Amino acid sequence: MHLFPIFVNLAGKSCLVIGGGQVAERKVHDLLNYDANIRVISPEAGENIRQWFSQGLIDWQAREFITSDLDHIFMVFVATNDIVVNRGIVGQCRQRGILVNAVDDPPNCDFYVPAVVRRNSLVVGISTEGKSPMFARKLREQLEELIGEEYGQFVDILGKQRDYIKQVIPDIEKRKRVFQTLVDSDILDLLKSGDGERVKERMEECMSSWRD
């Protein structure tokens, strides 16, 4: 069975992390970037979790997990140091239809967190379906060298122009031609060279091509 790759909007959604060690801290750190409502359940917690709690960024409850902690939860990361406890929680999540990730236990994961290369709105996720996270990290490092910040700038430009094109060009086929012209242009190369004025000129040329 292969994984179905998706990107999920976590803004405002309740995410539960069970455990308070270094692995749990890494999961919380990742979630903090996505405006999720984060709750941590663990009798003890590392310094970072305590700090995030004191800053009001997360809700930490210093106690053992109970079943009602799963009420109204969208996604769960199980990261205690007790594999029996972890698998028991996984079973409860699956009974409720809650997405669950049991850290370092691939058979008990509904999803895996990929190694990510992010350049603004451009996101490249790399997954080995839990078979080798270390190799996924190595590939990420290689891609980080290939995909510079200008790629993210280009995607942001395309996003802004896409909204404008949809407003001013009613014909769908003409829209597609303009989108293709933008993507196939040398704007990305111009961004790499830092030629801002030429970028503006090329944008105008591409945007007016639908009138030809």
Task: Please summarize what this structure is.
Helix content is 46%, strand content 15%.
Structure, described:
This protein has about 210 residues and is of the alpha/beta class. The termini are far apart. It has eight helices and seven strands. α1 links the parallel β1 and β2. It is elongated and about 65 Å long. The chain has three domains: about 110 residues, NAD(P)-binding Rossmann-like Domain (Rossmann fold, 3-Layer(aba) Sandwich), CATH 3.40.50.720; about 35 residues, Double Stranded RNA Binding Domain; about 60 residues. Helices cover about 45% and strands about 15% of the residues. Strands 3-2-1-4-5 form a five-stranded parallel sheet, with helices on both faces. The model has no long low-confidence stretch (mean pLDDT about 95).
Task: Give the arrangement of secondary structure elements.
Layout: E1 14-18, H1 22-31, E2 37-41, H2 47-54, E3 59-61, E4 75-78, H3 83-96, E5 99-102, E6 115-119, E7 122-126, H4 133-146, H5 149-168, H6 172-184, H7 187-193, H8 196-207
Parallel strand pairs: 1-2, 1-4, 2-3, 4-5
Antiparallel strand pairs: 6-7
Helix pairs in contact: 5-6, 5-7
Number of domains: 3
Order of helices and strands: EHEHEEHEEEHHHHH
**What's the total number of strands?**
7
Strand content: 5-15%
Whole-number average pLDDT? 93
Helix content: 40-55%
The general outline is elongated
Per CATH, the architecture of the largest domain is 3-Layer(aba) Sandwich
Compute the separation of the termini in Å.
Answer: 49 Å
Reading off the top of the CATH hierarchy, the class of the largest domain is best stated as Alpha Beta
Remind me, CATH topology of the largest domain? Answer: Rossmann fold
As a whole number of angstroms, the C-alpha radius of gyration is 22 Å
Q: Summarize the main sheet.
A: 5 strands, parallel
Number of separate helices: 8
CATH level-4 homologous superfamily of the largest domain? NAD(P)-binding Rossmann-like Domain
Q: Quickly give the structural class.
A: alpha/beta
In the sheet with the most strands, the strands line up as 3-2-1-4-5
Return residue spans where pLDDT drops below 50 for at least 5 consecutive residues. none
